[in-house]
Write a structure and sequence with these properties.
The structure is a homodimer of 342-residue chains. Chain A is an alpha+beta fold and 342 residues long. Chain A is 34% helix and 23% strand. Chains A, B: Keywords: ATP-binding, Kinase, Magnesium, Metal-binding, Nucleotide-binding, Thiamine biosynthesis, Transferase.
Chain lengths: 342, 342
């Protein structure tokens, strides 16, 4: 007897089937503190103590936002959750729940999906959030790529949302969280290395300062966003939405982000790259940037990195008074941040 | 002078760039009645009068859930919205907002994305809902396929959610909306035809009975779900979750779903198919199925199609007392509904 083709590997998504997949993934979803109805019905039901819900969606595509040979399934779950949870924090809200849409090839090992579910749950758990629903389907015929679309919900706790449009002349610009670590880790991985581990780990699993978002809102932040595409690009969105100029202070940024003997300095020296380029244009660490009225006592974890100049029709970002584009080019960057359809 | 490769076609996603795409898509998003913050910030903010939010995600993959040569961009937007809005209705809730995650090739014409946005908005508008946020990214390198992940939010209006688990012995089983039309339209398209148009149109743009969901909840429905995978499969989920047997009445189903001289009868006769197979196993019309205590006056649009038998450890679905699997096989169906990783 001959076989026309080899048997399927054990425990693929195809073998386990849709409801097997759901059961295995749900078993790892954790429990959301505010979920009244979790996975398994037509929809989830999540309580919204504030009377409003914050909602955001981020899509991660294999080969663009992650690689299965560079990141474990758990890493990818952590990263997909973090990208969305940081958006919720950037509104000044606390995340309450995730919904996950996943397209994967039918020969995906079920253990890989379980790993993603575990990573998602672990990233949410400290916030009291969990995956409350979603949909898992087969990738397009002929496509080997995983697409992960995560929606996060959050609660504002009675505070107004902190938008990108509220920065005012005279405000200070402040930062919470790390910048440049993920981009540095990516540079390491691209060259085929896997150390320093701190940088590579930061690329695999960002550590957004979730609590800093609601704390900034409570302290009176006038504008806020998360840094997903790069500091210059994302502060550019705040500048544009607010119709102001943000002037960042290179020395303060260095103090905040470039630890002597830290991984950015080490890798920069080894690769002949000024690590400031990662700090200014690297995304995916999901730091938070906010503006506060001058004199506001900043909450823990926030450091001043610049000021808001008087409103200007040519809204934009400066670094020590120089246009962001010029600074980025001088550092060898292709632009001020990530291009999504390059 | 020679060119190494031809210029890009005008107005692709790559040429317009991420923010051009967002601007063009947002211009078509419509306005959600309950949105406090719409697209353009880190997250949307939607008011939740009930104090809870209903949330559900459905993923549509090109080549599995739609084909760009069979459906227009507007059709695909309508269909993606409908799949999610029906899940919200199946909880007894009214949809308030959508978030859309979209992965598409960089050479996708921007006009196609605008069409999807228009379809999404048109499907939402009668409900007072709209797209309030999302993310558009490039497909995986080498992949030509569009993946559309839609999340719908909804409000329960003070009513308890209607779960799949509440069906009780003695309840009647009732149906709102159409069954089998989408499957019939798909059978037509698969054979290379495009008429009867009513069936093909139903496949391209389902017409879920959104208002019937909250109406059923208000009337005291004990369990409810939408029919996305096929009546036998989806009532099977209610039977299993409730630990009961649902016995469907073939004659009542025929009366409810098979109009003499209607497209299902016409196409069935032409193709030599018993149209009952589409009614019992065809998905994607997003009809609603609910159980009500016997004697409940049913709201407009609902018709009785069966009864709930006494609780049974072997929970399942019968048609005129015969097991669903047997009935489906006798009609020539491969199973009781759609297999997601076949």
């Amino acid at each position: 007897m001959t076989r026309a083709r080899p048997p399927l590997p054990a425990d693929t998504v195809r073998e386990v089937g849709e409801f097997g997949v759901i059961a295995r993934v749900v078993a790892r979803a954790g429990a959301a503190r505010l979920a009244e109805v979790g996975p398994g019905d037509d929809a989830a039901v999540v309580t919204t103590p504030d009377g409003r819900v914050v909602a955001t969606t981020d899509v991660l595509v294999e080969g663009r936002h992650f690689r299965r040979d560079w990141s474990s399934a758990e890493d990818i779950g952590h990263k997909a959750a973090a990208a969305n949870l940081a958006d919720v924090a950037a509104m000044g809200a606390r995340a309450t729940a995730l919904l996950v849409g996943l397209a994967c090839p039918s020969d995906t090992p079920i253990g890989w999906l379980e790993g993603v579910a575990t990573g998602l749950a672990e990233e949410c758990a400290p916030l009291g959030a969990a995956v409350v629903g979603g949909d898992t389907v087969a990738s397009a015929p002929g496509s080997d790529a995983v697409v992960l679309s995560v929606t996060a919900l959050g609660d504002l706790g009675g505070r107004p949302p902190v938008l990108r449009s509220g920065a005012r002349a005279g405000d200070v610009v402040a930062l919470a969280g790390r910048l440049g670590w993920s981009a540095c880790g990516l540079a390491v991985l691209r060259r085929g290395f896997s150390s320093p581990l701190a940088a590579v780990a930061a690329h695999r699993r960002p550590s957004p300062p979730y609590a800093a978002g609601p704390a900034a809102a409570a302290a009176g932040a006038t504008a806020m966003c998360d840094v997903s595409d790069g500091l210059l690009a994302d502060t550019g969105h705040v500048a544009e939405a607010s119709g102001v100029v943000l002037d960042l202070d290179r020395a303060a940024l260095g103090d905040a982000c470039l630890v002597p003997e830290g991984p950015l300095q080490q890798v920069g020296a080894a690769l002949g790259v000024d690590p400031l380029v990662w700090v200014l244009t690297g995304g995916e660490d999901h730091a938070l940037v906010a503006t506060f009225p001058a004199g506001t006592p900043l909450p823990a974890g926030w450091r001043v990195i610049g000021v808001v100049r008087s409103a200007d029709p040519a809204a934009g970002v400066l670094v020590d008074g120089e246009p962001a584009e010029t600074v980025a080019r001088a550092l060898g960057a292709e632009g001020t941040g990530h291009a999504h359809f390059g």
